[in-house]
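Throughout our pipeline, every protein is held as a single compact record rather than as scattered files. Nothing more is needed to write down the fold, since each code stands for a local backbone conformation. The record that follows is passed on verbatim for readers who wish to inspect the format.
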Amino acid sequence: MKYFLVKISFFILLLLLDSCVEPFSPPEVNSDVQYLVVDGFLNIGSDSSRISLSHTQNATASEAVLNETSAVITAEEENGEIYSFTEQGNGSYILPPQNFKIASKYRLHIKTKNGKEYLSDYVEVKNTPPIDSVAYRYDGRQDGVTMFVNTHDASNQTRFYRWKFEETWEYRSAFYSSLEVVDKNIISRRGEINTCWRTIKSGNILLGSTIKLSQDIIRDVPLTTVPVSSNKLYVKYSLLVKQYGLTQDAFEYWTSLAKTTEGTGSLFDPLPSQVTGNIKSTTNAKELVFGYFSASVEQKKRIFATPGLGTFPRCPMPDTLIIEDAKLTTSGTYLLNYTGTRPDSVLISSAYCADCRSQGGTTIKPSFWK
């Protein structure tokens, strides 16, 4: 089966064809112009719609991405119905599920706090078939587990697909901290910090097409490979896959943008033919806007995996402190348990070795966790 697999980000856009994956590192992006970036779509299904607004920035910039806050965003139906998004902070806007009409067309309207306005073209709603399955296999060449998605549309109407995913894994700290210092007293730790869960969203956009096939069937499209060395697979791992049907215009936009950017080196080099999305500035026709507004039904499927691949976390042996000194420890030192014959000492270690939260996770178990 032939299919297209495209990975796109705001600064690095990479085209993958027929499962061929090669890293692409474009030259520096030297432009300081901060163009608007629109990320999101109108979810015609039972979940909320989310739009994120940010700005491009110089590739050498060290500061965080500049989000567009205090904007007014609406989805406008072709017959005049208007749906308003609510700001959630950090450039994120949300619209709860609505009674959208699949037969209607919709467009996105954005007005920023500095008075600029942007409109997308009206887009048709694209239905999305359910995900048939999400599977995984160990890849010895990469020493990792590759996650695959399978789907089909019996009516042969979808043809163009987009996927996102969220990976969540459970992990442990190397040592168990059973004690803590409160007001210069050593007490039993009031909350466990040995077991954590961490969730990361996919940073790429994955696209697939069956336009050259007689049947609309996607089979074993790789989404991501989880290295064994990451230890994500040691305790338990979960992958949530989200699937969207795309129009041909949306698919061609991302494909053309990837090809053109790869050929010229950066988003801001002069392009032989400027690739633009379906979102335009109504206040400045020459202003570039990055992003493509789509309307589709979101389909989801979650899997759990417990392959037991990886190793138990390793750390240097704990140090020992007498109890009086341990009562004066700083927040960066973690008490494990008492030691000695009386006991008159405690074992101590670092946050990385004794507090799983230091590795980016949370001790709150996700509601979906089995």
Remarks:
- Residues 173-197+316-359 form one domain.
- The chain has two domains: 4-171+198-305, 173-197+316-359.
- Residues 1-30, 264-273 have pLDDT under 50 and may be disordered.
- The chain is about 5% helix and 45% strand.
